[in-house]
Design brief:
Length: 256
């Protein structure tokens, strides 16, 4: 597979703090691959995603090597080459503007076209992620949509420009079990049809195992495990039965 992203010795710390939010992380990601980043809150998952897409706070200090398409000098365009879906879909949209306004704003960031052409593409991408609404409903405000609808809208706008890499930060934090399975199936379909790569930061082990071909585990900013789902289950034999049961239940749902 074609290497899309290569990270070597990436470290991040904030301000003059002696501690590191991310310390000496090294891994790579290929085109069409789905990789999960597992870890508890504060382990450095979100900071790692922020470093990859260039959305760290002003006081963040980074070191290490990051290659996109094998080029250290090329900076991927956010929203075009690389996109991110944040944890909270309610805070991802501006409550003072309609969904139509914000969708058009996203479209015109990287494309040209008439208003009708833009809205047509927006509606197509919403249909692709399972958000089935009419064009007139786009004139509603974010608070008039459910959390599930907003999450699908976030995902749809994130892939509007066909990015090579999609980052997701805790995508299942507000979802029930059925919605998690539904999201895993949707993301698997997107990877299969577009060859887009996924990097998913989550603490939801069964979700990551159902979706991702490979998982990374972070602890206190460091990468402490890298391998496939079966290796991770074997490394945690105390929870092997429960993890495996949840994993296979979700796999059966995705394959049905």
């Amino acid at each position: 597979m074609i290497k899309l992203l290569k990270i070597e010795g990436l470290s991040v710390r904030y301000g003059d703090s002696p501690g590191y939010a991310v310390k000496d992380v090294t891994f790579d990601l290929s085109q069409g691959e789905a990789v999960g980043i597992l870890g508890e809150s504060g382990s450095g998952k979100s900071t790692l995603l922020g470093a990859i897409c260039g959305l760290l706070p002003w006081n963040a200090r980074t070191s290490g090597r990051l290659e996109f398409w094998g080029d250290t000098k090329r900076k991927p365009a956010l929203g075009k080459d690389i996109a991110i879906v944040f944890q909270d879909p309610f805070s991802a949209f501006d409550p003072f503007f309609t969904m139509e306004y914000q969708a058009l704003e996203t479209f015109y960031a990287w494309k040209n076209g008439t208003r009708d052409e833009a809205l047509s593409q927006v509606m197509k991408v919403f249909e692709r992620v399972g958000l089935r609404i009419s064009r007139s409903e786009l004139r509603k405000y974010p608070f008039q949509f459910s959390g599930g609808m907003l999450q699908r809208a976030c995902l749809g706008l994130a892939i509007l420009h066909d990015p090579s890499l999609l980052l997701l930060d805790e995508p299942t934090s507000a979802l029930d079990t059925f919605r998690k399975l539904e999201l895993a199936r949707l993301l698997s379909s997107l990877v299969a049809t577009s060859k887009m790569a996924l990097l998913v930061a989550t603490h939801d082990l069964p979700f990551a195992m159902a979706l991702c071909s490979r998982v990374l585990v972070m602890e206190e900013g460091r990468l402490v495990f890298e391998g496939n789902a079966k290796e991770l289950v074997g490394a945690n034999s105390a929870n092997k039965l429960n993890i495996a049961k949840a994993f296979w239940e979700q796999r059966r749902f995705l394959e049905s």
